[in-house]
């Protein structure tokens, strides 16, 4: 497995250390050094692929820090979905999700996955637990060029006044 999988996937041997470092060391360091907003409603976690998955895990592990997530083609493997299914109330969570329709046979270091179905299943799990989910499927592949085009809309979803 790649280092990224070890850190970002809940079955990775560096996952607990990575998520703890992110929330308990990096966020406090940034808040100490920079004039940033500090409420969970003013923070946005964002990531693509495993980064989208770990962003959602960070929110679930640290809801006092994070309530807003952008997930682009999230790598929501079965271990992640089991964690989401165990959550009882996610009404505090707001997530913007997108996946490319050409992501039905993505080869990762742990196997080949249908990211469209994984994202559909995750959306359903989150909505059943009360999360506010904005979900889209568009033509696109599992690559930065697809996500880059969608990032402005994702950010505006959370940053525009409603």
Word description of this protein:
The protein has 6 helices and 6 strands; from the N terminus they run ααβαβαβββαβα. The chain has a 4-stranded parallel beta sheet, sandwiched between helices. It has a two-stranded antiparallel ribbon with strand order 4-5. With 162 residues, the protein is of the alpha/beta class. The longest helix is centred in the first third of the chain and has 19 residues, at 15-33. The protein is globular and about 45 Å long. The N and C termini lie far apart (42 Å). Helix content is 47%, strand content 18%. α4 runs parallel beside α5 (115-128).
Structural features:
162 residues; alpha/beta; four-stranded parallel beta sheet; 6 helices; 18% strand
List the helices and strands and how they pair.
Elements: H1 3-8, H2 15-33, E1 45-48, H3 50-61, E2 68-72, H4 78-86, E3 94-100, E4 106-108, E5 111-113, H5 115-128, E6 132-138, H6 144-159
Parallel strand pairs: 1-2, 2-3, 3-6
Antiparallel strand pairs: 4-5
Helix pairs in contact: 4-5
**Which word captures the global form?**
globular
Q: Give me the count of strands.
A: 6
Strand order of the largest sheet: 1-2-3-6
Distance between the termini: 42 Å
N-to-C order of helices and strands: HHEHEHEEEHEH
Strand content: 15-25%
Content-based structural category: alpha/beta
Percent of residues in helical segments?
40-55%
Give average pLDDT, whole number: 95
The largest β sheet comes out as: 4 strands, parallel
Radius of gyration: 15 Å
Briefly characterize the structure.
With 162 residues, this protein is α/β, with parallel strands linked by helices. It contains six helices and six strands.
């Amino acid at each position: 497995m790649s280092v990224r999988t070890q850190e970002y996937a809940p079955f990775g041997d560096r996952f607990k250390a990575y998520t703890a470092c992110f929330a308990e060391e990096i966020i406090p360091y940034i808040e100490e050094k920079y004039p940033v907003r500090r409420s969970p409603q003013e923070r946005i976690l964002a990531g693509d692929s495993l980064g989208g998955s770990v962003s959602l895990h960070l929110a679930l592990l640290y809801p006092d820090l994070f309530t807003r997530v952008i997930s682009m083609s999230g790598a929501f493997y079965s271990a992640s979905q089991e964690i989401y299914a165990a959550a009882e109330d996610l009404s505090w969570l707001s997530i913007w999700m997108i996946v490319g329709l050409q992501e039905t046979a993505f080869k990762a270091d742990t196997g080949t996955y249908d990211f469209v179905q994984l994202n559909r299943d995750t959306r359903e799990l989150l909505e059943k637990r009360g999360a506010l989910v904005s979900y889209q499927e568009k033509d696109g592949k599992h690559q930065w060029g697809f996500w880059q085009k969608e990032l402005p809309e994702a950010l505006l979803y959370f940053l525009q006044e409603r």
